[in-house]
Specification:
Layout: E1 13-17, H1 20-26, H2 29-38, E2 40-47, H3 55-63, E3 66-69, H4 78-82, E4 89-92, H5 103-107, E5 111-114, H6 116-135, H7 138-148, H8 154-157, E6 166-171, H9 175-184, E7 189-194, H10 200-206, E8 209-210, H11 213-219, E9 222-225, H12 239-244, E10 250-253, H13 262-270, E11 275-278, E12 298-300, H14 312-327
Parallel strand pairs: 1-2, 1-3, 3-4, 4-5, 6-7, 6-9, 7-8, 9-10, 10-11, 11-12
Length: 345
């Protein structure tokens, strides 16, 4: 890692806090080796419960300057924080920090970094693939071809197929939403965005049209959701809003399942009027008798859009990059701002 200046370089005492499954999936041997070069770390110590009666853990936490966290990290409640008097930073090798970062962390002035930007990449890639496939009518054309098992008259069956000058509506100019916008730039698409925190100047920079949600829904061929799960976004896509969507339009949801009224979507999709690509649903695992599993116009995937398999190593690399910045006395590149955390997924 090269920098123009030569600030202090330390090896901060660091402790891993995540589930064993997360550690095995994210921290490949190469990542652990790099982590050990950057930080003073005992790779044998893994904290899964801050209240565990373990002398080695108590000593490690008491001396910890940095907590390197991942999925499965317990909440940093008052008892946990009291066991870490020297804690100065939390580096999260995953997305949202809402599950373990408490107000007490901010009250103590502890800085927090997240690999959410790195985690946004595969979600955006999944979304763009879904958009392009939706406008090419991939699900329907594959079904027609499978049933016909002979030449299909494409002009007759799919006269409006294609991505040229189609309209895509993005709900939420979040990290993922902005990455989707970036990846869509090479295509001849009209991109609408709805986000209450997006102003006209930002929209111009992004090269998109800022619009109201109902207008976006009514004018888009594909609507993709990237808004956070908040009390005000629950069932954002209810029956009246789904009814605004164009006949043949596609709803893509890689955000939280609670943003879509599942019952209302089932009713719309069952008529064949709308298509859906769903990586998140409410409940997270649908009951076995849900029609969404079998509807030919619905593609249902098991929460696979986010980082999986080899993509998890990107999260570790991003988190170690942040720890390396900290060790060099530099600010985090992806610090969490407590003032805007409530706006994020």
């Amino acid at each position: 890692m090269s920098h123009s200046a030569t600030p202090r370089v330390t090896r901060p005492r660091t402790v891993l806090a995540m589930s064993g499954e997360t550690r095995a999936a994210i921290l490949a041997p190469e990542a652990l080796d790099r982590l050990a070069r950057v930080a003073d770390l005992d790779p044998r110590l893994l904290v899964t419960d801050f209240g565990a009666d373990d002398p080695a853990q108590r000593t490690g936490l008491h001396e910890a300057e940095v907590l390197f966290t991942g999925w499965g990290c317990p909440p940093l409640d008052p008892a946990a924080l009291s066991a870490m008097p020297r804690l100065r930073a939390v580096v999260h090798a995953a997305g949202s920090v809402k599950h373990h970062i408490t107000q007490g962390v901010w009250d103590r002035g502890i800085t927090v970094s997240t690999a959410a930007t790195a985690n946004a990449f595969p979600v955006a890639e999944y979304t763009v693939a879904a958009i392009l496939f939706a406008n090419k009518h991939i699900l329907e054309s594959a079904r027609v071809y499978r049933e016909a098992r002979s030449r299909v008259n494409l002009l007759e069956r799919f006269p409006g197929v294609g991505n040229y000058r189609r309209t895509v509506g993005i709900v939420g100019a979040s990290r993922i939403g902005r990455r989707v916008i970036e990846l869509l730039r090479p295509y001849d698409l009209r991109v609408l965005v709805h986000d209450p925190y997006l102003d006209e100047a930002d929209a111009r920079i992004l090269g998109v049209e800022r619009t109201g949600l109902d207008t976006l829904v009514a004018e888009s061929d594909v609507v993709t959701i990237h808004a956070p799960e908040l009390p005000g976004t629950r069932h954002l896509f209810d029956a009246p809003r789904l009814a605004l969507m164009r006949d043949g339009a596609t709803l893509v949801n890689t955000a939280r399942g609670s943003l879509v009224d599942t019952e209302a979507l089932v009713k719309e999709a069952a008529t064949g009027r709308l298509n859906a690509v769903l990586d998140h649903t409410e409940p997270e695992v649908l009951p076995a008798d849900s029609p969404l599993y079998d509807l030919p116009n619905v593609l249902l995937t098991p929460h696979i859009a986010g980082s999986q398999g080899g993509e998890l190593h990107r999260l570790a690399d991003a988190a170690v990059d942040e720890l390396e910045r900290y060790a060099h006395g530099l600010p985090f590149a992806h610090a969490v701002d407590p003032r805007t955390l409530h706006q994020q997924a």
